[in-house]
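Sample entry (116 residues):
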Amino acid sequence: MYNKILFSIVLVLAVLNNGCGLLEAVTHRQALSDYAEDLFRRQNALTTALMMQTEEDDAVYQAEMDMHSACKLLNEYARLAMEGKNGSLLFQRRVKNSLPACDAAIQKLETILEVQ
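Predicted structure, serialized as C-alpha cells:
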C-alpha cells in the first residue's frame, strides 16, 4: 500500500515537472519494477494452482512449460535479487525485454485455467 501511495506521489510530481528527466526515469523504473513484480506474483500463483490440480491436461501442461520458458529470465533475476545481487546491465536489459513474452505466456495459461 505504501509503495502504491509513493508511486502515485512520484507520478503526480512527474506530471507537474514534465521537463525533469530524472523524475521521469525514476517513475518509469518504478512502473517497470511494479510490472515485473506483478508478473512474478501471477506466475507463482499459477504454479501453485497447477500443483493443486488432480487432472492432467496436455494443453495446460504445454502452456505451463511455455510460461516457465518465457519467464526464465525474470525468475533468474528474482533469484539474484534474493541473494542481494543485481546482475549486469546487459542482463537487466534482457530481463526487461523478456517481460512482454512472459506476460503473454501468463495470460495464455490464465485463460486456459479460467475455461476449465
